[in-house]
Write a structure and sequence with these properties.
The chain is built from 20 helices and six strands. It is α/β, with parallel strands linked by helices and about 400 residues long. A six-stranded parallel sheet has the order 3-2-1-4-5-6. The protein is elongated and about 85 Å long.
């Protein structure tokens, strides 16, 4: 088999990326193409690229109809910097047979800079370079570089034909930020994903430190072993929404980010693998399957992610049920889980509008909406959620009363 690997940040996956895929397959050089979204590329800033699950899902949507293409999650699951030589060795040792030939797809700009890559000599020995000509280099320049690399290092280099295009992910992101998503050279399904999840808008994490961003990215990498990419996209959306809400109402945004990202850590786990947690749950909780993943998730993130902050643990534990007297962080995560931009329930617009100005009222509206849905399906809401509802009603009533009489009359 002749297999090729094509890596990139794909942030987002645009039409030129798809054109590369089509051109490689049309060239006849390879039988199969692996497309590999980068985990932590060496040439990009840690906060300058989108989280891995978003980029992987966009590539998945763009490549769904290509039978000869397989999307690989190797780099986004692998810790450390995503060097191409590491990926090449992984594929040769784990996915390819000895007689298989490996090709490395790259642009002409990469060919001109290949000697700056980590262990480039090993790359040239182990792969045939499959190069697409891009604007900026003339045929003479490329031919000269090909000849030089072949002479110096016995490199194997092939070119494949591809229409010129100067579309870049940077320009696409800039256009989206300016409100011009529909004008961008992006596959339609990717556009819909970007619009649905609010990607490439303002960054609620911009005030986080480099260390905090790295921690969140490492948590995301660990979550990839625990859940599907779609579930992780939801978790990332909750993280971002939780930070927005927290900043709006003066609540710790870092704790909101961690609790939001990790809230569903146990959602796709086998609950029976956590007998100690199950043994501590009351009958009402055990009989309410949709909320059991909260307590199990709290135990899991303590053990696997090293989370010890009680506020974060409690917010994860109770993110589907709340407590009778919910903490500010519990309310933030509960609400963010319900109104993150990927949610498409019909009753969310008024809740989202309320979340811009009154946290307690937005949470109460969310409880009422959930309760109506549960009753319609013949279910019962957990008693803690009902108690939280009463508490919030009283809080709102008391606040309204005090506002009506004015501060000068309050003793």
């Amino acid at each position: 088999m002749k297999a090729a690997i094509y890596g990139g940040t794909f942030d987002p996956f645009h039409k030129v990326h798809r054109r590369v895929v089509k051109s490689v397959l049309k060239s006849g050089y390879v039988d199969k193409l692996y497309v590999i979204p980068a985990g932590t590329p060496p040439h990009k800033g840690k906060r300058s690229i989108s989280f891995s699950a978003y980029r992987y899902r966009m590539a998945e949507l763009a490549l769904a109809k290509f039978s000869q293409v397989e999307l690989s999650d190797y780099e986004i699951k692998e810790p450390g910097t995503s060097y191409t030589i590491k990926t090449v060795r992984y594929f040769q040792e784990n996915l390819l047979d000895e007689e298989d030939e490996l090709y490395l797809v790259m642009g002409s700009d990469s060919l001109m800079e290949i000697e700056n890559w980590k262990e480039f000599l090993s790359l040239l020995r182990q792969c045939t370079l499959l190069v697409a000509a891009r604007p900026g280099e003339t045929e003479a320049e490329l031919a000269a570089q090909k000849h030089r690399l072949e002479k110096l290092y016995q490199a194997k280099i092939l070119f494949f034909e591809m229409k010129e295009s100067d579309v870049s992910s940077t320009a696409v992101r800039k256009g989206i930020l300016e409100g011009k998503l529909d004008e961008q050279e992006v596959p339609q399904l990717v556009k819909e994903f970007i619009r649905q999840n609010g990607l490439y808008a303002e960054d609620p994490l911009e005030n986080f430190s480099e260390e905090q961003i790295l921690t969140l990215r490492d948590f995301e990498r660990q979550l990839l072993a625990l859940m599907s990419v779609n579930r992780l996209v939801h978790s990332l959306n909750v993280m971002y929404e939780a930070v927005r809400i927290a900043r709006r109402f003066g609540i710790d945004p870092w704790k909101a980010a961690v609790a939001g990202l990790l809230h569903d850590a146990a959602k796709e786990q086998d609950y029976h693998e956590f007998p100690e947690v199950l043994s501590r749950l009351d009958e009402a909780m055990l009989n309410n399957k949709p909320i059991i993943h909260g307590p199990i998730g709290a135990a899991l993130v303590m053990e696997q992610f090293g989370i010890t902050d009680p506020a974060i643990i409690d917010a994860i534990y109770h993110h589907s049920s709340l407590t009778p007297v919910p903490s500010p962080l519990e309310k933030v995560v509960y609400l963010a889980d319900k109104i993150e931009p990927g949610r498409i329930f019909a009753d969310l617009k008024p809740i989202r509008e309320m979340a811009l100005k009154d946290l307690d009222r937005a949470v109460l509206m969310t409880i009422d909406g959930s309760w109506a849905s549960i009753r319609a399906h013949g279910g019962k809401m957990h008693r803690d959620t009902l108690a939280a509802r009463v508490f919030l009603q009283r809080q709102i009533e008391e606040r309204t009363r005090l506002q009506s009489i004015g501060p000068e009359k309050v003793t």
